[in-house]
C-alpha cells in the first residue's frame, strides 16, 4: 500500500530524512518512532503529499505522493490540529467532505458514524469552546470523511489525558480491523507498542532499526533475571566467589537484595553464592525488554517525553 | 474545469461564512448604523445644497434697481443678494447700494455706497469682483475673441546654456487650451499666450490640449453633464473658457478627484479583513488540513480571495452609481482593488505575526493609495497621470472619452502586477513555507527560487537541447514577469520626478531606472544561488545572466505601448522609455545595431550582477551597483546621442 525508496529531504544544509526506505502492507498499522527531530513528521508529511521529497520515490495507494488523486485516498492527522474555531463539528466536517466531493447524504452518514464512535456529543457547539481532547476527536473524524484507504497519523494521542488517549488508541486498532492502512508516529513508545504491527526506529533522519516490535526487541534487547535474596550484597559479591566472573549488579530493595543477571547460568551462580553466604534465594523474576530499552540500546540515549504509564510496558516479572 | 470551479466556490462560500462570523453582530450593526447616518447626512446635505457647495451664498445684500445693468452682475454672484434699491436702507436692509441713473444718451451716473462697516467693505470688494466677472462673461460672448481679449506679447531671445531641451517642462504641458499661453514661462521665454485656446503655443503636448479643450472645470463639467458633484473649487479651465489670465483657475479636477478617492477608501478596510484571513490560516498551522485535500494551492487561494474580489466589485459599482461614474470607473478601479488584494496576500504570506501584518497592510494602503491618487491629480495636465487607473475614473466623472489604448496603458500594468504578485505568493503557499517563521527577505527569496529550475554546470552542454534550455528559459520567463513591476516603478519615478527641472530630473531618472532594471534582472538570480537552485560557478552565472538579460530585452519591447498614449512626447518619458522617432533614414546596419544594443547591455550588465550573486550577498550588492552604473552610462549615452 505504501512504498518508500531512498527518501531524502533536506532543508538547505540540514538533512531531515536521509536515505529512508520502507514499505507498509494493506491493513497494517505501521509505527515510526524516534525522538524529536528524528525525521518522523517529515516522513509522514512526504507520505501525505505536504512536502516534496528532495530525492527518492514515494508511492501511496498506487499514486505518487504529489498526485492530487493520492490525496483522495488518504486521511491525514497532523500533530497539531487547530480547527476553524467559529465552526461547529458538523459544519467543519461537512466542509471538508465537500472538498472531497463526498455526496451530502453519504457525508452526513460518515460524520455521524465517526462522531458516534469517538463519543463526541456536542456536535453543534463552537469548536472554539471545546476541550483539546474533543477537538482531537473532531480532527480524527475529519481524517475519515473521505473514507480513505490510508491514514497517516502524527502523534495522534499527544498531550491528551489518559482516558482520551486510550480511546484514540482503541479507535486506531479498530481502523486496522476495518482494513485501513495506518501509519502512526509517536515518541511515546507505549502508544506504538500498543497498536503497531511493525515499526521503524528513526534517529537523526535515518532508520536505525525496523521490524515487528517483538523482532526488534529480540534483536536489540535482552531478557534479564532479577534474583531476590535475603543476604547482604557484600557477602554475595565476593571477589573470589561464584559471581566473580558473572555480569551482575546488586541493589537493596526494602529488606531484600535484588541481583540482576543476564542468563540462567548466572542465576545458578547467584544461588550458589547466596547459599555459601548462609542465605537463600527468595524469588526469581524475568524481565522482558521494553521498546524504551531497545531504543536506548540503539541510539544510546533515552527517549524524551517518557509516558508516565511506561511501567506498564515492563514485562511480567 | 467545472470541478475546479466548484471546489473554488466551496472554499469561497466557506470563507464568506468565516469572514461574516468573525465580526460580532453588535459591531456589524454599529458599523451599518454609522454608515447609514453618514449616508443620510451626506445625501440630505447634497439634496439641500448645503454640503460643501456655496457656503458663502447670500452673504451680502445689495440694493440695486432691477433695470440696472449691474443687476445681472449681482444676480450672478451667489454671495450677493439683490434687494430693490427703492427699499434698501444702508446698514439695515442692505450692505451696499448701487445708485444708477441715466444722464441722457449713453451716459450713466453710477454711485456705489457701502455701509461704513467691515461687512460693507467686504460687500464692496465682492461687488467689484462680481462686476469684473460679469464683464469677463460678456466679453467671452464676443465673436472676435482677439479683440475682446487683446494680448501683448514681448519676446526676448536668449542663447541656450544647456544641451538638454527643457522647453517641455511639464508645468506648461497643458498649454493646450485657453490658458496655455501662460505656461511657457518655465523655459525662460517671456511669452504669454493669446488666450485663444488654439492649442498650446509652446508646442509641447498637443494631446493634453485636446483633453483640456473638452472642458475640465468642475463647474463646467457639472453643468454640461448634470453630474451631481459639488461645485467646489475654482472656475473652468480650458478652451471653452475665455478670459484674462487672472480669471483662469488651475486645472485641478478637485471634485472629480475627491469622488474618485472615494473608490479607494473601502479597499483599506477590505485588505484588513483579507490579510487577517490569510494569516489566520498560517497561525498555529490552521490551514494544514486544507493542503492535504485534493485542492491545489491556487484553488485554495482563489477560493479565499473570491469573496473579497466580489465585495470589491459590489462596493465599487455602488460607489460608481452614487457618484455618477460609469462602467469605465468600475473597470478602472478593479485593477487597483486586485493590486490591493494581491499585495496584501503576499504581505500576509511573508508576515510572521499579526503585528507584522499591520505594517504590511498600512504599507500597502499608503503606497497604493499614493500611487493611485497622486498621478490622478494631474489628470488635466499631463499624460503621466495615466500611470494611475484612478485617472480614468476622473475622466469618467468628467464625462470625457478615453481611448482603448489609454485604458489599457492605465490598467494593464497594475492588473499584470496583481497577477504576478499572486503567482509569487502562491509559490510559497505550501507546507514548507506557510507555517515557518522566516524573515520577510528570506521568504521573498524562497518565493522567487521556487519558480526556478536547477542549473548545474553539467546541464550547460555545448549542444543546446530542450532539457538543457528549460532551466534557462525559466530564468528568462521570471525576468520577463518583472516587467510590469519595473514598468510601474519607472512610471512612478517619472511621476515623482517630472515636475523637477530637467537638468536634475533626467540624470536622477536615468540612474534610478538603471538600478530598477538591474535589480529586477538579478534579484531572482541571487535567490537561485542562495537557495542552491543554481550551482555557484562562473559558467552558471554567465548562463543565467545572459538568459535573464535576454528575457528582459524581449519583454521590454512590450513597453512600446507607452508610445500609444503620448508619454514619450514628454522629455522624461522619452528618457525613461525611449522613442523610435528620429531614426528614419539611418542605414539598416545602424538600425539593427540600435535594436540589439539593449540586448547587449542587458546581457553584459546582468552577467556582472549574476557573477556577484553567485559569490554571496556582499559581492552581489557590489556587482549590482556596478551593473547599474554600466546601465546608467549606457542610458546617458543613448539620451545624449538620440535625444
UniProtKB/TrEMBL annotation, chain A:
On whether Ribosomal protein is a keyword of this UniProt record, the answer is: no
Q: Which InterPro entries match?
A: AAA+_ATPase, ABC_transporter-like_ATP-bd, ABC_transporter-like_CS, ABC_transporter_ATP-binding, DrrA1/2-like_C, P-loop_NTPase
- Keywords tagged on the record: ATP-binding, Nucleotide-binding, Transport
Report the CDD domains cross-referenced here. ABC_DR_subfamily_A
A UniProt-annotated Pfam family? DrrA1-3_C
**Family, similarity comment:** Belongs to the ABC transporter superfamily.
Q: What is this protein called?
A: ABC transporter
Native organism is Halorubrum aidingense JCM 13560
Taxonomy of origin reads:
Archaea, Methanobacteriati, Methanobacteriota, Stenosarchaea group, Halobacteria
From TrEMBL, chain B:
Question: Biased composition, Low complexity: where in the chain?
Answer: 210-220
Indicate the transmembrane segments per the record. Answer: 254-275, 305-324, 330-350, 357-378, 407-429, 475-500, 540-566, 586-608, 620-641
Organism's domain of life?
A: Archaea
Where are the stretches annotated Disordered? 162-227
Composition skew (Gly residues), residue ranges: 169-186, 194-209
- Keywords in alphabetical order: Membrane, Transmembrane, Transmembrane helix
Protein's recorded name? ABC transporter permease
Amino acid at each position: 500500500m505504501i512504498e518508500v525508496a531512498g527518501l531524502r529531504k533536506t532543508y538547505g544544509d540540514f538533512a531531515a530524512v536521509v536515505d529512508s526506505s520502507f514499505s507498509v502492507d494493506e491493513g497494517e498499522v505501521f509505527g515510526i518512532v524516534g525522538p524529536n527531530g528524528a525525521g518522523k513528521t517529515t516522513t509522514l508529511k512526504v507520505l501525505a503529499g505536504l512536502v516534496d521529497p528532495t530525492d527518492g520515490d514515494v508511492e501511496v495507494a498506487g499514486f505518487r505522493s504529489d498526485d492530487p488523486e493520492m490525496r483522495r485516498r488518504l486521511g491525514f492527522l497532523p500533530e497539531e490540529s487547530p480547527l476553524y474555531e467559529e465552526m461547529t463539528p458538523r459544519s467543519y466536517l461537512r466542509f471538508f467532505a465537500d472538498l472531497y466531493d463526498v455526496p451530502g447524504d453519504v457525508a452526513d452518514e460518515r460524520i455521524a458514524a465517526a462522531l458516534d464512535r469517538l463519543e463526541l456529543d456536542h456536535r453543534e457547539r463552537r469548536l472554539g469552546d471545546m476541550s483539546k481532547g474533543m477537538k482531537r476527536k473532531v480532527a480524527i473524524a475529519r481524517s475519515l470523511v473521505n473514507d480513505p484507504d490510508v491514514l497517516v497519523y502524527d502523534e495522534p494521542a499527544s498531550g491528551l489525558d489518559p482516558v482520551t488517549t486510550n480511546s484514540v488508541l482503541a479507535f486506531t486498532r479498530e481502523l486496522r480491523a476495518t482494513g485501513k492502512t495506518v501509519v502512526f508516529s509517536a515518541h511515546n513508545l507505549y502508544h506504538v507498542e500498543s497498536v503497531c504491527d511493525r515499526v521503524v526506529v528513526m534517529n537523526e533522519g535515518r532508520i536505525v532499526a525496523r521490524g515487528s516490535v517483538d523482532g526488534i526487541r529480540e534483536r536489540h534487547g535482552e531478557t534479564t533475571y532479577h534474583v531476590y535474596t535475603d543476604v547482604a550484597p557484600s557477602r554475595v559479591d565476593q571477589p573470589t566467589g561464584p559471581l566473580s566472573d558473572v555480569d551482575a549488579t546488586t541493589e537493596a530493595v526494602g529488606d531484600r537484595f535484588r541481583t540482576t543477571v543476564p542468563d540462567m547460568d548466572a542465576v545458578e551462580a547467584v544461588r550458589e553464592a547466596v547459599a555459601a553466604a548462609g542465605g537463600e534465594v527468595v524469588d526469581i523474576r524475568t524481565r522482558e525488554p521494553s521498546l524504551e530499552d531497545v531504543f536506548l540500546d540503539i541510539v544510546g540515549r533515552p527517549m524524551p517525553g517518557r509516558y508516565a504509564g511506561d511501567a506498564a510496558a515492563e514485562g511480567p516479572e | 474545469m467545472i470541478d475546479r470551479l466548484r471546489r473554488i466556490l466551496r472554499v469561497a462560500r466557506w470563507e464568506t461564512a468565516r469572514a461574516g462570523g468573525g465580526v460580532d453582530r453588535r459591531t456589524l450593526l454599529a458599523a451599518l448604523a454609522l454608515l447609514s447616518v453618514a449616508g443620510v447626512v451626506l445625501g440630505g446635505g447634497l439634496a439641500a445644497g448645503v454640503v460643501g457647495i456655496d457656503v458663502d451664498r447670500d452673504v451680502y445684500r445689495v440694493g440695486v434697481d432691477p433695470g440696472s445693468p449691474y443687476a445681472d452682475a449681482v444676480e450672478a454672484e451667489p454671495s450677493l443678494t439683490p434687494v430693490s434699491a427703492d427699499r434698501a436702507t444702508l446698514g439695515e436692509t442692505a450692505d451696499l447700494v448701487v445708485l444708477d441713473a441715466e444722464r441722457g444718451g449713453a451716459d450713466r451716473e453710477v454711485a456705489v455706497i457701502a455701509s461704513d462697516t467691515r461687512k460693507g467693505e467686504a460687500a464692496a470688494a465682492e461687488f467689484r469682483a462680481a462686476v469684473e466677472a460679469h464683464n469677463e462673461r460678456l466679453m467671452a460672448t464676443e465673436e472676435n475673441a482677439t479683440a475682446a481679449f487683446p494680448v501683448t506679447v514681448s519676446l526676448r531671445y536668449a542663447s541656450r546654456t544647456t544641451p538638454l531641451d527643457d522647453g517641455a517642462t511639464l508645468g506648461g504641458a497643458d498649454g493646450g487650451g485657453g490658458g496655455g499661453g501662460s505656461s511657457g514661462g518655465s523655459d525662460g521665454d517671456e511669452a504669454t499666450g493669446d488666450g485663444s485656446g488654439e492649442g498650446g503655443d509652446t508646442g509641447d503636448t498637443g494631446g493634453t490640449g485636446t483633453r483640456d479643450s473638452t472642458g475640465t472645470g468642475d463647474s463646467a463639467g457639472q453643468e454640461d453633464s448634470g453630474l451631481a458633484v459639488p461645485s467646489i473649487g475654482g472656475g473652468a479651465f480650458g478652451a471653452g473658457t475665455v478670459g484674462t489670465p487672472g480669471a483662469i483657475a488651475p486645472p485641478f479636477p478637485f471634485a472629480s478627484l475627491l469622488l474618485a478617492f472615494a473608490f479607494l477608501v473601502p479597499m483599506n478596510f477590505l485588505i484588513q479583513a483579507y490579510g487577517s484571513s490569510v494569516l489566520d490560516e498560517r497561525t498555529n498551522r490552521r490551514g494544514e488540513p486544507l493542503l492535504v485535500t485534493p485542492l491545489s494551492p491556487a484553488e485554495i487561494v482563489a477560493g479565499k480571495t473570491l469573496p473579497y474580489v466580489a465585495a470589491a466589485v459590489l462596493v465599487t459599482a455602488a460607489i460608481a452609481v452614487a457618484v455618477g461614474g460609469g462602467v469605465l470607473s468600475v473597470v478602472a478601479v478593479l485593477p487597483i482593488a486586485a493590486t490591493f488584494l494581491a499585495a496584501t496576500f503576499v504581505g500576509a504570506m511573508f508576515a510572521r505575526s499579526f503585528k507584522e501584518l499591520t505594517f504590511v497592510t498600512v504599507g500597502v494602503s499608503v503606497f497604493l493609495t499614493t500611487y493611485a491618487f497622486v498621478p490622478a491629480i494631474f489628470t488635466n495636465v499631463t499624460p503621466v497621470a495615466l500611470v494611475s487607473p484612478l485617472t480614468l475614473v476622473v475622466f469618467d466623472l468628467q464625462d470625457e472619452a478615453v481611448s482603448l489604448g489609454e485604458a489599457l496603458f492605465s490598467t494593464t500594468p497594475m492588473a499584470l502586477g496583481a497577477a504576478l504578485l499572486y503567482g509569487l505568493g502562491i509559490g510559497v503557499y505550501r507546507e514548507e513555507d506557510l507555517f515557518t517563521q522566516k524573515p520577510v527577505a528570506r521568504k521573498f527569496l524562497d518565493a522567487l527560487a521556487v519558480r526556478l529550475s536547477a542549473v548545474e554546470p553539467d546541464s550547460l552542454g555545448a549542444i543546446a537541447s530542450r532539457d538543457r534550455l528549460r532551466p534557462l528559459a525559466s530564468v528568462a520567463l521570471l525576468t520577463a514577469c518583472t516587467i510590469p513591476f519595473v514598468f510601474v516603478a519607472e512610471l512612478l519615478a517619472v511621476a515623482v520626478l517630472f515636475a523637477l527641472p530637467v537638468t536634475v530630473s533626467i540624470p536622477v531618472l536615468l540612474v534610478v531606472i538603471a538600478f530598477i532594471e538591474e535589480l529586477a534582472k538579478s534579484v531572482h538570480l541571487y535567490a537561485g544561488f542562495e537557495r542552491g537552485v543554481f550551482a555557484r560557478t562562473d559558467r552558471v552565472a554567465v548562463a543565467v545572466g545572459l538568459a535573464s538579460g535576454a528575457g528582459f530585452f524581449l519583454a521590454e519591447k512590450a513597453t512600446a505601448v507607452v508610445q500609444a498614449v503620448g508619454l514619450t512626447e514628454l522629455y522624461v518619458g522619452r528618457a525613461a522609455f525611449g522613442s523610435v522617432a528620429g531614426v528614419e533614414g539611418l542605414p539598416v546596419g545602424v538600425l539593427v545595431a540600435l535594436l540589439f544594443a539593449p540586448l547587449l547591455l542587458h546581457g553584459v550588465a546582468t552577467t556582472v550582477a549574476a557573477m556577484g550573486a553567485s559569490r554571496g550577498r556582499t559581492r552581489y550588492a557590489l556587482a549590482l551597483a556596478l551593473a547599474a552604473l554600466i546601465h546608467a552610462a549606457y542610458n546617458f549615452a543613448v539620451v545624449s546621442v538620440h535625444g
